[in-house]
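User: Thanks for the earlier help. One more: Preprotein translocase subunit YajC. Can you show the sequence and predicted structure together?

Assistant: Of course, both are below.
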Amino acid sequence: MIVMLVLLFGFMYFAMIRPQRKQQQQRQAMLSSMKKGDNVVTIGGLHGVIDSIDNAKQTVVLNAGDVYLLFNLSAIRLVEGDPATQPATPAATTTPEAPATPETPAASDADKSDDKPANEA
């Protein structure tokens, strides 16, 4: 009975607690690496550029298109980095695709006549 309880706690640790701690550490590292000029996304979906960070007050000022907004650091969901230092995304390459072929066989004339109303006399 005690062995089962120990196994249950071991499973709970590796399945729930350990991944949550790892995720918290990654988020903390992301927030601590933020700097002025980084593109960020808030938890509300607002995209902006960091204007200033106040670690003492745990706040950040974002420039969202000539509008400066003050947010708590906890409101930052994603840091995209400085746009000048990010590599350019390669242009989408287009590959010629084979023409689409119908997967169903063409309907015969007998099938088409079922849709038409009967001739009226």
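User: Great, one quick takeaway?

Assistant: The chain is about 30% helix and 25% strand.
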